[in-house]
Amino acid sequence: MAARHSVAHLSRRVSGAVVPSPLRTVRPKDVIAHTRAFATPVPPVTQNAAGSKGPTAMVFLNMGGPSTVDEVEDFLKRLFQDGDLIPLGRLQNYIGSFISSRRTPKIQKQYAEIGGGSPIRKWSEYQNVEMCKILDRISPETAPHKPYVAFRYANPLTEEMYNKLFEDGFGNGKGGRAIAFTQYPQYSCSTTGSSLNELWKWRQRLEGKAGPGTIDWSVIDRWPVHPGLVNTFASNIEKTLAEYPEERRSKAVLLFSAHSLPMTVVNRGDPYPAEVAATVYAVMQRLNFSNPYRLCWQSQVGPQPWLGPQTQTSVEEYIAKGQKDLVLIPIAFTSDHIETLFELDKEVIGESGHTDTVKRVESLNGNPMFIDALADLAKTHLDSNITCSYQMGLRCPGCKNERCAESKKFFAGVQNSLAV
Ligand SMILES: C=CC1=C(C)c2cc3[nH]c(cc4nc(cc5[nH]c(cc1n2)c(C)c5CCC(=O)O)C(CCC(=O)O)=C4C)c(C)c3C=C
Ligand code: FES
Ligand SMILES: [Fe+2]
């Protein structure tokens, strides 16, 4: 299809003010899929090279997790008090605080069992530092690239990250460019959307109105089918399949597992289920459909209906049908966390009665192929001169959240914000 969109749809933020990009045509595919060719030649590092437009702040957005058991209560409190994740109305803070205190002992035990905390901070910091090293080489014109992490529910929180930006010479009248890079490959309003609403909130509080000297923000908001992501998943799956005897290998069932969503969020029109399915299909294409597969959903919380089928039930039902060779693939998160190390390893596999034939594919963590993919995504974004994907300007059909409207107007630009 040769549908072409004028770049008048797209905009670039310069010193906080939205200005139209220079006229050229961009296919929406270019904006969303970031499919730059992979064989980037690597020139030597050129820190502060003459003509560099850097420094550039690379800000990883994610939910975060408690690094110690003592941090669990605060983590859960922030999570249950987030109206973008769990809308509880006017009593949000009160009810959120009540639910989180009651839940804390159970969740503390789970974090204790996986080594005393979540590894998300360790992996996020490592991935970002390594990505920035690559960017300094392949994008000397925007070097040096400085790594920052902004978590939604654990330290370092968005406010802390913003103050660090100020300390390092960004904003405060000095401007500078910052890229908000979501670490959720697939976009959900309850994950990336919530992080962007939070970033927008602190941007308003700490920098006031957009204007000369404020930070120039742009966003990498989704990357469900980036070839580097797809290849890393596929190669990890191949490694796990190789552990089965050859005669059983192609009959092992691949069970992709993603964090579920409440049906209220799905029915509001959240993009996440479709984007997770896109990742699964791209990985299967890359594997040449070598095995039968299904997508299932894990980590439901509370009594309301969630998107299914549930991962644990699916494993039990396949085993009951005689299918015991099952490969679990966490497909919606880029590092290990409580849902891989506790829920999949200890509950789903541990309680399956078949720990020798039900296996889990390793998480992306520090995989160099994955770090290359992050650098490729960032490089494509830095070169593209766009603020975010064209898709990001559109609110969900059922969205009633004014924070979404405001943050979309800010990040996508007023002219690209649709249905706000
Ligand atoms: C793509 C990933 C995730 C989506 C989508 C998501 C939605 C979502 N989550 C909750 C409630 C909880 N999630 C919790 C932990 C948690 N969630 C994700 C990822 C997604 N959540 C991760 C990676 C983690 C673990 C973090 C870590 O270990 O570091 C928790 C806390 C644990 C618990 O109490 O069970 C809750 C609660 C909702 C309601 C939701 C969608 C609306
Ligand atoms: S809930 Fe999706 S845009 Fe607000
Ligand atoms: Fe969650």
Q: Could you say which overall geometry the principal axes of the C-alpha atoms support?
A: globular
Number of DSSP helical runs: 14
Largest sheet features: 4 strands, parallel
Radius of gyration: 21 Å
| Alpha-carbon distance between the two ends | 29 Å
The assembly state of the depicted protein chains is single chain
Bound molecules: ligand L6N33NVT, FE2/S2 (inorganic) cluster, fe (ii) ion
SS strand fraction: 5-15%
Tell me what you see in this structure.
The chain is of the alpha/beta class and 420 residues long. The protein has 14 helices and 12 strands. The strands form 4 sheets. Strands 6-5-7-8 form a 4-stranded parallel β-sheet, with helices on both faces. Helix 12 links the parallel strand 11 and strand 12 (358-360). The longest helix is centred in the first third of the chain and has 22 residues, at 92-113. The chain is globular. The model is unreliable at 1-47 (pLDDT under 50). The structure holds the ligand C=CC1=C(C)c2cc3[nH]c(cc4nc(cc5[nH]c(cc1n2)c(C)c5CCC(=O)O)C(CCC(=O)O)=C4C)c(C)c3C=C, FE2/S2 (inorganic) cluster and fe (ii) ion. The ligand C=CC1=C(C)c2cc3[nH]c(cc4nc(cc5[nH]c(cc1n2)c(C)c5CCC(=O)O)C(CCC(=O)O)=C4C)c(C)c3C=C binds next to helix 2, helix 3 and helix 12. Keywords: Heme biosynthesis, Iron, Lyase, Membrane, Mitochondrion, Mitochondrion inner membrane, Porphyrin biosynthesis, Transit peptide. Catalyzes the ferrous insertion into protoporphyrin IX. Belongs to the ferrochelatase family.
